[in-house]
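I am writing to request your help with a piece of structural work I have in hand. The matter concerns a single protein, recorded as an amino acid sequence and a row of C-alpha coordinates. Could you please explain, in whatever detail you think fit, how the C-alpha coordinates follow from the sequence? Thank you for your consideration; the sequence and its C-alpha coordinates are set out here:
>
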Amino acid sequence: MINDSFNVAKSQVSFLKGSQSERTEQRRPTEATAPNEKHLSTGHLLDNLKGRTISSGLITIAAQGIKFALNLASIMVLARLLTPRDFGLYAMVTTIMGYVVTFKDAGLSTATVQREGITHAQVSNLFWINVALSGALSLLLAAGSPLVAWFYREPRLVPITLILSSTFFLSGLTIQHTALLNRQMRFTALAFIQIASMLTGVIIGIGMAWLGYRYWALVFSNVVTIAVTVPLTWCAIPWRPQLPSRGTGTKSLVRFGTSMAGGGYIYALAKGTDSMLVGRFYGADSIGLYSRAAALLNRPLEQFLYPISSVFIPALSRVQTQPERYRRTFLQVYESMALVSFLFTGLLFALSRPLTLVVLGPKWEKAAIIFAAFALAAQSAPVARAAAWLFISQGRAGRDWLLVNLLGAGLTVASFVVGLPFGPAGLAIAYSTVSLFIGMPILYYFAGREGPVTTADLWSGFFRYVPLWIVVCGVTWLVRLLLVNSPPLVQLVVCAPFGLLAGTILIWMVGPMRRTALGLTNILQELISRKILSKGR
Protein backbone atom coordinates (compact mmCIF):
# COMPACT_ATOMS: atom_id res chain seq x y z
CA MET A 1 0.00 0.00 0.00
CA ILE A 2 2.81 2.41 0.93
CA ASN A 3 4.69 1.60 -2.28
CA ASP A 4 1.56 2.09 -4.36
CA SER A 5 0.93 5.48 -2.78
CA PHE A 6 4.53 6.47 -3.34
CA ASN A 7 4.37 5.45 -7.01
CA VAL A 8 1.13 7.40 -7.55
CA ALA A 9 2.58 10.48 -5.89
CA LYS A 10 5.79 10.13 -7.88
CA SER A 11 3.88 9.88 -11.16
CA GLN A 12 1.82 12.95 -10.27
CA VAL A 13 4.91 15.00 -9.49
CA SER A 14 6.51 13.85 -12.72
CA PHE A 15 3.43 14.73 -14.72
CA LEU A 16 2.83 18.14 -13.14
CA LYS A 17 6.40 19.34 -13.32
CA GLY A 18 7.59 17.57 -16.44
CA SER A 19 11.00 16.18 -17.16
CA GLN A 20 14.15 18.26 -17.33
CA SER A 21 14.27 17.88 -21.10
CA GLU A 22 10.70 19.15 -21.37
CA ARG A 23 11.49 22.23 -19.29
CA THR A 24 14.58 22.88 -21.37
CA GLU A 25 12.49 22.71 -24.52
CA GLN A 26 10.05 25.20 -23.02
CA ARG A 27 12.80 27.70 -22.29
CA ARG A 28 14.23 27.47 -25.81
CA PRO A 29 11.37 27.63 -28.32
CA THR A 30 12.43 27.79 -31.92
CA GLU A 31 11.53 30.70 -34.14
CA ALA A 32 8.93 28.53 -35.86
CA THR A 33 7.15 27.65 -32.64
CA ALA A 34 7.62 30.97 -30.77
CA PRO A 35 4.43 32.59 -32.17
CA ASN A 36 2.50 29.58 -30.95
CA GLU A 37 4.02 29.54 -27.45
CA LYS A 38 1.96 32.53 -26.29
CA HIS A 39 -1.16 30.38 -26.62
CA LEU A 40 0.26 27.88 -24.11
CA SER A 41 1.47 30.05 -21.21
CA THR A 42 -0.75 30.52 -18.14
CA GLY A 43 1.46 32.54 -15.78
CA HIS A 44 -0.45 35.75 -16.45
CA LEU A 45 -3.69 34.13 -15.24
CA LEU A 46 -2.44 33.87 -11.64
CA ASP A 47 -2.15 37.66 -11.24
CA ASN A 48 -5.92 38.03 -11.00
CA LEU A 49 -7.22 34.47 -10.89
CA LYS A 50 -10.26 35.35 -8.78
CA GLY A 51 -11.31 38.14 -11.11
CA ARG A 52 -10.77 36.02 -14.20
CA THR A 53 -12.69 33.12 -12.67
CA ILE A 54 -15.61 35.34 -11.70
CA SER A 55 -15.73 37.00 -15.11
CA SER A 56 -15.38 33.68 -16.88
CA GLY A 57 -18.11 32.15 -14.74
CA LEU A 58 -20.57 34.97 -15.45
CA ILE A 59 -19.79 34.95 -19.17
CA THR A 60 -20.28 31.22 -19.22
CA ILE A 61 -23.57 31.41 -17.33
CA ALA A 62 -24.86 34.11 -19.68
CA ALA A 63 -23.87 32.00 -22.68
CA GLN A 64 -25.59 28.98 -21.21
CA GLY A 65 -28.72 31.04 -20.69
CA ILE A 66 -28.76 31.80 -24.41
CA LYS A 67 -28.04 28.16 -25.26
CA PHE A 68 -30.77 27.03 -22.89
CA ALA A 69 -33.27 29.29 -24.67
CA LEU A 70 -32.15 27.95 -28.06
CA ASN A 71 -32.32 24.38 -26.84
CA LEU A 72 -35.76 24.86 -25.30
CA ALA A 73 -37.10 26.48 -28.46
CA SER A 74 -35.64 23.64 -30.54
CA ILE A 75 -37.17 20.97 -28.30
CA MET A 76 -40.59 22.62 -28.25
CA VAL A 77 -40.75 23.12 -32.01
CA LEU A 78 -39.24 19.81 -33.10
CA ALA A 79 -41.35 17.81 -30.63
CA ARG A 80 -44.43 19.16 -32.39
CA LEU A 81 -43.12 18.74 -35.93
CA LEU A 82 -41.66 15.26 -35.48
CA THR A 83 -42.85 12.00 -33.92
CA PRO A 84 -41.39 9.88 -31.10
CA ARG A 85 -40.34 7.38 -33.81
CA ASP A 86 -38.25 10.07 -35.58
CA PHE A 87 -36.44 10.87 -32.36
CA GLY A 88 -36.10 7.16 -31.67
CA LEU A 89 -34.33 6.42 -34.95
CA TYR A 90 -31.89 9.26 -34.29
CA ALA A 91 -31.34 8.13 -30.68
CA MET A 92 -30.57 4.56 -31.75
CA VAL A 93 -27.54 5.73 -33.72
CA THR A 94 -26.34 8.35 -31.24
CA THR A 95 -26.47 5.72 -28.49
CA ILE A 96 -24.02 3.55 -30.42
CA MET A 97 -21.89 6.63 -31.11
CA GLY A 98 -21.78 7.32 -27.39
CA TYR A 99 -19.88 4.08 -26.84
CA VAL A 100 -16.88 5.26 -28.83
CA VAL A 101 -17.00 9.04 -28.49
CA THR A 102 -14.60 9.02 -25.51
CA PHE A 103 -11.87 7.47 -27.67
CA LYS A 104 -12.00 10.51 -29.97
CA ASP A 105 -10.65 12.75 -27.22
CA ALA A 106 -8.67 10.05 -25.38
CA GLY A 107 -8.44 12.45 -22.43
CA LEU A 108 -5.82 14.51 -24.25
CA SER A 109 -7.76 17.77 -23.98
CA THR A 110 -7.82 17.33 -20.20
CA ALA A 111 -4.07 16.76 -20.23
CA THR A 112 -3.55 20.01 -22.16
CA VAL A 113 -5.70 22.01 -19.74
CA GLN A 114 -4.35 20.45 -16.55
CA ARG A 115 -0.62 20.37 -17.35
CA GLU A 116 1.24 23.18 -15.57
CA GLY A 117 3.85 23.50 -18.30
CA ILE A 118 3.40 22.34 -21.88
CA THR A 119 5.18 22.95 -25.20
CA HIS A 120 4.08 23.62 -28.76
CA ALA A 121 5.55 20.31 -29.93
CA GLN A 122 3.63 18.38 -27.27
CA VAL A 123 0.28 19.98 -28.13
CA SER A 124 0.98 19.42 -31.83
CA ASN A 125 1.55 15.72 -31.22
CA LEU A 126 -1.67 15.53 -29.21
CA PHE A 127 -3.51 17.27 -32.05
CA TRP A 128 -2.39 14.68 -34.60
CA ILE A 129 -3.24 11.83 -32.22
CA ASN A 130 -6.76 13.24 -31.82
CA VAL A 131 -7.17 13.67 -35.58
CA ALA A 132 -5.97 10.11 -36.24
CA LEU A 133 -8.28 8.64 -33.61
CA SER A 134 -11.25 10.69 -34.81
CA GLY A 135 -10.71 9.68 -38.42
CA ALA A 136 -10.38 6.02 -37.46
CA LEU A 137 -13.59 6.16 -35.44
CA SER A 138 -15.46 7.78 -38.34
CA LEU A 139 -14.36 4.96 -40.64
CA LEU A 140 -15.16 2.33 -38.02
CA LEU A 141 -18.67 3.64 -37.42
CA ALA A 142 -19.35 3.97 -41.15
CA ALA A 143 -18.17 0.40 -41.76
CA GLY A 144 -20.32 -0.83 -38.90
CA SER A 145 -23.53 0.84 -40.10
CA PRO A 146 -25.02 -2.48 -41.34
CA LEU A 147 -24.40 -4.00 -37.91
CA VAL A 148 -26.21 -1.09 -36.23
CA ALA A 149 -29.20 -1.64 -38.49
CA TRP A 150 -29.11 -5.41 -37.86
CA PHE A 151 -28.95 -5.01 -34.08
CA TYR A 152 -32.00 -2.75 -33.94
CA ARG A 153 -33.74 -4.55 -36.82
CA GLU A 154 -34.16 -1.20 -38.58
CA PRO A 155 -32.67 -0.80 -42.11
CA ARG A 156 -33.17 2.97 -42.13
CA LEU A 157 -30.31 3.28 -39.67
CA VAL A 158 -27.66 2.51 -42.31
CA PRO A 159 -27.67 5.94 -44.06
CA ILE A 160 -28.23 7.73 -40.73
CA THR A 161 -25.13 6.08 -39.28
CA LEU A 162 -23.06 6.80 -42.40
CA ILE A 163 -23.79 10.53 -42.27
CA LEU A 164 -23.41 10.91 -38.50
CA SER A 165 -20.08 9.09 -38.59
CA SER A 166 -18.52 12.18 -40.19
CA THR A 167 -19.03 14.16 -36.97
CA PHE A 168 -16.25 12.23 -35.24
CA PHE A 169 -13.61 13.45 -37.67
CA LEU A 170 -14.95 17.02 -37.75
CA SER A 171 -14.98 17.38 -33.98
CA GLY A 172 -11.51 15.84 -33.75
CA LEU A 173 -10.13 18.87 -35.59
CA THR A 174 -11.14 21.17 -32.72
CA ILE A 175 -10.19 19.20 -29.60
CA GLN A 176 -6.78 20.75 -28.92
CA HIS A 177 -7.81 24.23 -30.05
CA THR A 178 -10.73 24.14 -27.63
CA ALA A 179 -8.45 22.81 -24.89
CA LEU A 180 -6.09 25.76 -25.41
CA LEU A 181 -8.98 28.21 -25.23
CA ASN A 182 -9.99 26.59 -21.94
CA ARG A 183 -6.39 26.62 -20.71
CA GLN A 184 -6.18 30.34 -21.43
CA MET A 185 -9.62 30.86 -19.82
CA ARG A 186 -10.86 32.56 -23.01
CA PHE A 187 -14.50 31.81 -22.32
CA THR A 188 -15.95 34.70 -24.30
CA ALA A 189 -14.57 33.16 -27.49
CA LEU A 190 -15.81 29.72 -26.46
CA ALA A 191 -19.26 31.10 -25.72
CA PHE A 192 -19.49 32.74 -29.15
CA ILE A 193 -18.43 29.53 -30.89
CA GLN A 194 -20.97 27.44 -29.01
CA ILE A 195 -23.87 29.84 -29.52
CA ALA A 196 -23.17 30.51 -33.20
CA SER A 197 -22.79 26.83 -34.09
CA MET A 198 -25.82 25.81 -32.05
CA LEU A 199 -27.99 28.54 -33.58
CA THR A 200 -27.01 27.43 -37.09
CA GLY A 201 -27.83 23.81 -36.29
CA VAL A 202 -31.18 24.71 -34.72
CA ILE A 203 -32.20 26.76 -37.76
CA ILE A 204 -31.26 23.93 -40.12
CA GLY A 205 -33.07 21.34 -37.98
CA ILE A 206 -36.30 23.29 -37.64
CA GLY A 207 -36.26 24.26 -41.31
CA MET A 208 -35.85 20.67 -42.47
CA ALA A 209 -38.51 19.42 -40.05
CA TRP A 210 -40.91 22.10 -41.31
CA LEU A 211 -40.30 20.93 -44.89
CA GLY A 212 -41.12 17.34 -43.93
CA TYR A 213 -37.68 15.73 -43.80
CA ARG A 214 -38.59 13.99 -40.51
CA TYR A 215 -35.63 12.32 -38.76
CA TRP A 216 -33.17 13.78 -41.27
CA ALA A 217 -33.79 17.14 -39.63
CA LEU A 218 -32.18 15.82 -36.43
CA VAL A 219 -29.30 14.22 -38.31
CA PHE A 220 -28.29 17.30 -40.31
CA SER A 221 -28.86 19.62 -37.36
CA ASN A 222 -26.14 17.67 -35.53
CA VAL A 223 -23.77 17.55 -38.51
CA VAL A 224 -24.11 21.25 -39.31
CA THR A 225 -23.59 22.28 -35.67
CA ILE A 226 -20.27 20.43 -35.50
CA ALA A 227 -19.17 21.48 -38.99
CA VAL A 228 -19.67 25.18 -38.18
CA THR A 229 -17.65 24.77 -34.98
CA VAL A 230 -14.47 23.88 -36.89
CA PRO A 231 -13.76 27.18 -38.74
CA LEU A 232 -15.01 29.26 -35.80
CA THR A 233 -12.63 27.54 -33.39
CA TRP A 234 -9.63 27.77 -35.70
CA CYS A 235 -10.30 31.48 -36.21
CA ALA A 236 -10.69 32.12 -32.47
CA ILE A 237 -7.22 30.84 -31.63
CA PRO A 238 -4.48 31.15 -34.30
CA TRP A 239 -2.42 28.30 -32.84
CA ARG A 240 -1.39 25.95 -35.64
CA PRO A 241 0.15 22.50 -35.14
CA GLN A 242 3.55 21.55 -36.43
CA LEU A 243 4.28 18.14 -37.92
CA PRO A 244 4.55 15.24 -35.44
CA SER A 245 7.95 14.96 -33.75
CA ARG A 246 9.80 12.63 -31.39
CA GLY A 247 11.58 13.30 -28.12
CA THR A 248 9.11 15.94 -26.96
CA GLY A 249 7.96 14.25 -23.74
CA THR A 250 4.46 13.64 -25.01
CA LYS A 251 4.21 10.20 -23.41
CA SER A 252 3.45 11.54 -19.92
CA LEU A 253 0.57 13.58 -21.35
CA VAL A 254 -0.78 10.57 -23.24
CA ARG A 255 -0.51 8.39 -20.13
CA PHE A 256 -2.45 10.90 -18.05
CA GLY A 257 -5.05 11.48 -20.78
CA THR A 258 -5.64 7.81 -21.48
CA SER A 259 -5.92 7.10 -17.75
CA MET A 260 -8.64 9.74 -17.43
CA ALA A 261 -10.35 8.63 -20.64
CA GLY A 262 -10.13 4.97 -19.69
CA GLY A 263 -12.11 5.50 -16.52
CA GLY A 264 -14.54 7.81 -18.30
CA TYR A 265 -15.00 5.34 -21.13
CA ILE A 266 -15.90 2.52 -18.77
CA TYR A 267 -18.65 4.60 -17.21
CA ALA A 268 -19.83 6.02 -20.57
CA LEU A 269 -20.05 2.48 -21.92
CA ALA A 270 -22.32 1.49 -19.06
CA LYS A 271 -24.35 4.71 -19.11
CA GLY A 272 -25.24 4.34 -22.77
CA THR A 273 -26.63 0.86 -22.20
CA ASP A 274 -30.03 2.21 -21.15
CA SER A 275 -30.97 3.68 -24.53
CA MET A 276 -29.57 0.65 -26.32
CA LEU A 277 -31.69 -1.73 -24.22
CA VAL A 278 -34.84 0.36 -24.58
CA GLY A 279 -34.36 0.59 -28.35
CA ARG A 280 -33.61 -3.11 -28.71
CA PHE A 281 -36.46 -4.47 -26.58
CA TYR A 282 -39.15 -1.78 -26.81
CA GLY A 283 -38.63 -0.22 -30.27
CA ALA A 284 -38.21 3.23 -31.79
CA ASP A 285 -41.30 4.81 -30.22
CA SER A 286 -40.22 3.89 -26.69
CA ILE A 287 -36.66 5.05 -27.14
CA GLY A 288 -38.05 8.26 -28.63
CA LEU A 289 -40.04 8.91 -25.44
CA TYR A 290 -37.10 7.88 -23.27
CA SER A 291 -34.53 9.98 -25.12
CA ARG A 292 -36.72 13.10 -25.16
CA ALA A 293 -37.44 12.85 -21.44
CA ALA A 294 -33.72 12.45 -20.78
CA ALA A 295 -32.80 15.30 -23.14
CA LEU A 296 -35.39 17.62 -21.62
CA LEU A 297 -33.46 17.40 -18.35
CA ASN A 298 -29.94 16.32 -19.22
CA ARG A 299 -29.27 18.70 -22.08
CA PRO A 300 -29.91 21.91 -20.10
CA LEU A 301 -28.12 20.34 -17.13
CA GLU A 302 -25.10 19.56 -19.27
CA GLN A 303 -25.18 23.08 -20.70
CA PHE A 304 -24.91 24.29 -17.12
CA LEU A 305 -22.27 21.82 -15.91
CA TYR A 306 -19.87 21.55 -18.84
CA PRO A 307 -18.92 25.22 -19.08
CA ILE A 308 -18.62 25.58 -15.31
CA SER A 309 -16.26 22.61 -15.35
CA SER A 310 -14.37 24.31 -18.18
CA VAL A 311 -13.96 27.41 -16.01
CA PHE A 312 -13.02 25.86 -12.69
CA ILE A 313 -10.87 22.89 -13.70
CA PRO A 314 -8.22 25.25 -15.15
CA ALA A 315 -8.62 27.57 -12.14
CA LEU A 316 -8.18 24.72 -9.65
CA SER A 317 -5.29 23.28 -11.67
CA ARG A 318 -3.46 26.59 -11.43
CA VAL A 319 -3.64 26.58 -7.58
CA GLN A 320 -3.12 22.86 -6.99
CA THR A 321 0.18 23.60 -5.20
CA GLN A 322 -1.61 25.90 -2.71
CA PRO A 323 -3.77 23.53 -0.59
CA GLU A 324 -5.67 26.10 1.47
CA ARG A 325 -6.48 28.28 -1.52
CA TYR A 326 -7.48 25.19 -3.48
CA ARG A 327 -9.83 23.96 -0.75
CA ARG A 328 -11.40 27.38 -0.21
CA THR A 329 -11.98 27.92 -3.93
CA PHE A 330 -13.47 24.47 -4.46
CA LEU A 331 -15.85 24.57 -1.50
CA GLN A 332 -17.18 28.00 -2.45
CA VAL A 333 -18.06 26.77 -5.92
CA TYR A 334 -19.29 23.38 -4.65
CA GLU A 335 -21.76 24.88 -2.19
CA SER A 336 -22.99 27.40 -4.75
CA MET A 337 -23.70 24.56 -7.17
CA ALA A 338 -25.46 22.59 -4.42
CA LEU A 339 -27.71 25.54 -3.58
CA VAL A 340 -28.74 26.17 -7.18
CA SER A 341 -29.21 22.50 -8.08
CA PHE A 342 -31.28 21.59 -5.01
CA LEU A 343 -33.44 24.66 -5.49
CA PHE A 344 -34.37 24.02 -9.10
CA THR A 345 -34.46 20.21 -9.16
CA GLY A 346 -37.07 20.36 -6.39
CA LEU A 347 -39.22 22.38 -8.77
CA LEU A 348 -38.58 20.06 -11.69
CA PHE A 349 -39.55 16.92 -9.78
CA ALA A 350 -42.82 18.40 -8.50
CA LEU A 351 -43.76 19.88 -11.88
CA SER A 352 -42.54 17.04 -14.10
CA ARG A 353 -45.92 16.32 -15.72
CA PRO A 354 -47.05 19.87 -16.59
CA LEU A 355 -43.52 20.77 -17.70
CA THR A 356 -43.35 17.78 -20.06
CA LEU A 357 -46.75 18.58 -21.56
CA VAL A 358 -45.97 22.28 -22.03
CA VAL A 359 -42.55 21.74 -23.59
CA LEU A 360 -43.11 18.59 -25.65
CA GLY A 361 -46.85 18.59 -26.23
CA PRO A 362 -49.77 16.23 -25.42
CA LYS A 363 -48.48 13.28 -27.44
CA TRP A 364 -45.48 13.02 -25.10
CA GLU A 365 -47.43 12.49 -21.85
CA LYS A 366 -45.88 9.04 -21.28
CA ALA A 367 -42.48 10.74 -21.02
CA ALA A 368 -43.52 12.63 -17.87
CA ILE A 369 -42.81 9.81 -15.41
CA ILE A 370 -39.43 9.20 -17.07
CA PHE A 371 -38.61 12.88 -16.69
CA ALA A 372 -39.62 12.76 -13.00
CA ALA A 373 -37.30 9.81 -12.40
CA PHE A 374 -34.35 11.62 -13.97
CA ALA A 375 -35.19 14.78 -11.99
CA LEU A 376 -34.78 12.78 -8.78
CA ALA A 377 -31.20 11.93 -9.67
CA ALA A 378 -30.49 15.37 -11.14
CA GLN A 379 -30.27 16.95 -7.69
CA SER A 380 -26.95 15.20 -7.15
CA ALA A 381 -25.56 15.56 -10.68
CA PRO A 382 -23.91 19.00 -10.24
CA VAL A 383 -22.22 18.15 -6.94
CA ALA A 384 -21.12 14.78 -8.32
CA ARG A 385 -19.56 16.53 -11.29
CA ALA A 386 -17.78 18.91 -8.94
CA ALA A 387 -16.40 15.97 -6.94
CA ALA A 388 -14.94 14.59 -10.18
CA TRP A 389 -12.99 17.85 -10.56
CA LEU A 390 -10.86 16.76 -7.61
CA PHE A 391 -9.46 13.84 -9.60
CA ILE A 392 -8.81 15.92 -12.72
CA SER A 393 -7.37 19.11 -11.23
CA GLN A 394 -5.10 17.16 -8.85
CA GLY A 395 -3.83 14.85 -11.61
CA ARG A 396 -5.26 11.78 -9.86
CA ALA A 397 -5.81 9.62 -12.93
CA GLY A 398 -4.64 6.43 -11.25
CA ARG A 399 -6.23 3.62 -9.30
CA ASP A 400 -8.92 5.62 -7.50
CA TRP A 401 -10.29 7.16 -10.69
CA LEU A 402 -10.38 3.81 -12.45
CA LEU A 403 -12.02 2.08 -9.48
CA VAL A 404 -14.69 4.78 -9.14
CA ASN A 405 -15.65 4.37 -12.77
CA LEU A 406 -15.58 0.58 -12.62
CA LEU A 407 -17.88 0.53 -9.62
CA GLY A 408 -20.11 3.20 -11.12
CA ALA A 409 -20.35 1.27 -14.38
CA GLY A 410 -21.25 -1.96 -12.61
CA LEU A 411 -23.95 -0.30 -10.55
CA THR A 412 -25.36 1.49 -13.59
CA VAL A 413 -25.68 -1.68 -15.67
CA ALA A 414 -27.17 -3.54 -12.70
CA SER A 415 -29.81 -0.83 -12.27
CA PHE A 416 -30.71 -1.06 -15.97
CA VAL A 417 -31.10 -4.83 -15.78
CA VAL A 418 -33.34 -4.53 -12.71
CA GLY A 419 -35.51 -1.81 -14.22
CA LEU A 420 -35.77 -3.07 -17.81
CA PRO A 421 -38.69 -5.51 -17.25
CA PHE A 422 -40.78 -2.55 -16.05
CA GLY A 423 -40.30 -0.55 -19.25
CA PRO A 424 -38.49 2.74 -19.90
CA ALA A 425 -39.96 4.36 -16.77
CA GLY A 426 -38.89 1.47 -14.56
CA LEU A 427 -35.39 1.62 -15.98
CA ALA A 428 -35.14 5.35 -15.27
CA ILE A 429 -36.41 4.93 -11.70
CA ALA A 430 -33.96 2.11 -10.96
CA TYR A 431 -31.03 4.09 -12.36
CA SER A 432 -31.86 7.24 -10.39
CA THR A 433 -32.29 5.33 -7.13
CA VAL A 434 -29.00 3.46 -7.44
CA SER A 435 -27.08 6.57 -8.54
CA LEU A 436 -28.31 8.67 -5.63
CA PHE A 437 -28.08 6.17 -2.79
CA ILE A 438 -25.14 3.97 -3.81
CA GLY A 439 -23.15 5.74 -6.53
CA MET A 440 -22.80 9.05 -4.69
CA PRO A 441 -21.30 7.56 -1.48
CA ILE A 442 -18.73 5.63 -3.52
CA LEU A 443 -17.72 8.72 -5.52
CA TYR A 444 -17.44 10.91 -2.40
CA TYR A 445 -15.37 8.32 -0.56
CA PHE A 446 -12.72 8.07 -3.25
CA ALA A 447 -12.77 11.77 -4.20
CA GLY A 448 -12.04 12.83 -0.62
CA ARG A 449 -9.39 10.20 0.17
CA GLU A 450 -6.56 12.47 -1.01
CA GLY A 451 -5.98 16.18 -1.36
CA PRO A 452 -7.14 19.25 0.55
CA VAL A 453 -10.88 18.48 0.18
CA THR A 454 -12.10 15.59 2.34
CA THR A 455 -15.08 13.24 2.08
CA ALA A 456 -16.55 14.96 5.15
CA ASP A 457 -16.35 18.31 3.34
CA LEU A 458 -18.32 16.88 0.42
CA TRP A 459 -21.06 15.31 2.56
CA SER A 460 -21.35 18.41 4.72
CA GLY A 461 -22.02 20.54 1.66
CA PHE A 462 -24.50 17.97 0.31
CA PHE A 463 -26.68 17.47 3.41
CA ARG A 464 -26.73 21.18 4.17
CA TYR A 465 -28.97 21.73 1.14
CA VAL A 466 -31.21 18.64 1.30
CA PRO A 467 -33.82 20.57 3.34
CA LEU A 468 -33.95 23.13 0.53
CA TRP A 469 -34.96 20.43 -1.97
CA ILE A 470 -37.58 19.03 0.41
CA VAL A 471 -39.17 22.42 1.09
CA VAL A 472 -39.23 23.57 -2.54
CA CYS A 473 -40.54 20.24 -3.81
CA GLY A 474 -43.10 19.88 -0.99
CA VAL A 475 -44.57 23.37 -1.31
CA THR A 476 -44.70 23.17 -5.11
CA TRP A 477 -46.38 19.74 -4.95
CA LEU A 478 -49.03 20.90 -2.44
CA VAL A 479 -49.91 23.96 -4.51
CA ARG A 480 -50.13 21.81 -7.64
CA LEU A 481 -52.62 19.48 -5.91
CA LEU A 482 -54.96 22.45 -5.62
CA LEU A 483 -54.67 23.05 -9.38
CA VAL A 484 -54.61 19.44 -10.57
CA ASN A 485 -57.49 20.02 -12.99
CA SER A 486 -56.04 23.24 -14.41
CA PRO A 487 -54.17 23.39 -17.76
CA PRO A 488 -50.47 22.44 -17.55
CA LEU A 489 -49.30 25.98 -18.35
CA VAL A 490 -51.41 27.41 -15.50
CA GLN A 491 -49.89 24.85 -13.12
CA LEU A 492 -46.40 25.93 -14.12
CA VAL A 493 -47.05 29.65 -13.91
CA VAL A 494 -48.75 29.45 -10.50
CA CYS A 495 -46.83 26.67 -8.72
CA ALA A 496 -43.25 27.58 -9.64
CA PRO A 497 -43.30 31.02 -7.90
CA PHE A 498 -44.65 29.46 -4.70
CA GLY A 499 -41.88 26.89 -4.68
CA LEU A 500 -39.19 29.50 -5.36
CA LEU A 501 -40.61 31.77 -2.66
CA ALA A 502 -40.53 28.95 -0.10
CA GLY A 503 -36.94 28.18 -1.07
CA THR A 504 -35.92 31.83 -0.82
CA ILE A 505 -37.40 32.10 2.66
CA LEU A 506 -35.53 29.00 3.83
CA ILE A 507 -32.26 30.26 2.34
CA TRP A 508 -32.65 33.54 4.22
CA MET A 509 -33.44 31.76 7.51
CA VAL A 510 -30.52 29.29 7.44
CA GLY A 511 -27.14 30.94 7.99
CA PRO A 512 -24.88 28.76 5.76
CA MET A 513 -27.39 28.91 2.90
CA ARG A 514 -27.71 32.66 3.29
CA ARG A 515 -23.94 33.12 3.22
CA THR A 516 -23.67 31.05 0.05
CA ALA A 517 -26.46 33.03 -1.61
CA LEU A 518 -24.89 36.33 -0.53
CA GLY A 519 -21.57 35.11 -1.91
CA LEU A 520 -23.19 34.56 -5.30
CA THR A 521 -24.74 38.02 -5.07
CA ASN A 522 -21.38 39.59 -4.21
CA ILE A 523 -19.77 37.89 -7.19
CA LEU A 524 -22.42 39.37 -9.46
CA GLN A 525 -21.98 42.83 -7.92
CA GLU A 526 -18.20 42.58 -8.31
CA LEU A 527 -18.55 41.70 -11.95
CA ILE A 528 -20.93 44.61 -12.54
CA SER A 529 -18.57 47.02 -10.78
CA ARG A 530 -15.66 45.75 -12.88
CA LYS A 531 -17.62 46.40 -16.05
CA ILE A 532 -18.57 49.89 -14.90
CA LEU A 533 -14.95 50.71 -14.07
CA SER A 534 -13.70 49.37 -17.37
CA LYS A 535 -16.25 51.49 -19.24
CA GLY A 536 -15.25 54.54 -17.23
CA ARG A 537 -11.69 54.17 -18.39
